[in-house]
Amino acid sequence: MPRTPEFQRYQNAFAAHIRDPRANPRPRGVPARRMKVYNELLFNNIEGFLLACFPVLRQVLGVRRWTRLVRDFFAEHRCHTPIFRQIPDEFVRYLLQARAPNPDDPPFLNELAHYEWVELALAVAEQEPEWERIDPEGDLLEQRPALNPVLARLSYLYPVHRIGPRFKPAAPGPQPTLIAVFRTPDYAMRFVQLNPASMALLEILERDLCTGRQALERIASELKHPDPAQLILAGQEILRNLQHEGAILGAWKP
After folding, report:
1. What residues does 252 pair with on adjacent strands?
2. Is the N or the C terminus of the chain less surrounded, counting Cβ atoms within 10 Å?
3. What fold is seen in the domain 1-105?
4. At how many degrees (to 10) do helices 196-207 and 212-223 cross?
5. Cβ-contact 144, 82 below 8 angstroms
């Protein structure tokens, strides 16, 4: 094995100290005052990008736990992208896939982080509606509803949309929290709480090429509903509400 050149060993030691000053000694010959400038500059840059995406998580954790969490991320995670705005993506990947749980963590930490991250992920998504193929006045029941292309259906154990400094649930809610997050045509972000029926309806419309009526008939069949016509009537109102909110943009033109 060829010996690592001296300058590379110096670079590795320099970077290791910046990532985790407590675990890695300062390289010989570097003044402590100058090293501190590098340490603070790089850590503060990373924390700044995360603060912009996770303000609620920061408030819930408080300064001490938040700083420790960011320190762990900075020391342990190896980012797969050099793009600054994707640092929050890496942070969520670290929480969900790599970080060992800490006894001091709130039980909803990962779900809250994911919920806050989704807003950024959809805000910068490149998809745009194909307006030339969509009829905003189309029949949502007899035609295929056109879903907003920048939409995520989310299910959480905790009521993440309510979590804040004054509400920190210690246990999951009695039912999953179902939320649709989407970007409106004027680039505003919307969050709409769903019920199981509207969640199932959106899932079918996203997965299958079917009309609104066909999707509702499938739901009625799966539920063995005693009055499918009544369910379809209620489902038609759900479709209208979803269009009013912006999750559905209209119906696909024939």
Report:
1. 134
2. N
3. DNA polymerase; domain 1 (1.10.150)
4. 130
5. no
Q: What share of the chain is helix, strand, coil (3-state, %, to 5)?
A: 55, 10, 35
Annotation: CATH topology of 128-254:
Outer Surface Protein A; domain 3 (3.90.930)
One-letter amino acid at 212 equals G
Q: Where are the domains of the chain?
A: 1-105, 128-254
Q: What is the pLDDT along the chain (254 residues), one digit of tens a residue?
A: 567 777 678 777 777 777 877 877 788 878 888 878 878 888 899 999 999 999 999 999 999 999 999 999 998 888 887 788 899 999 999 999 989 888 899 999 999 999 999 999 999 999 999 999 999 999 999 999 999 999 999 999 999 999 999 999 999 999 999 999 999 989 999 999 999 999 999 999 999 989 999 999 999 998 888 899 999 999 999 999 999 999 999 999 98
In the structure encoding, which two tokens stand for residue 9, read together?
A: 């060993």
Please state, as a whole number, how many other Cβ atoms lie within 10 Å of the Cβ of residue 167.
9
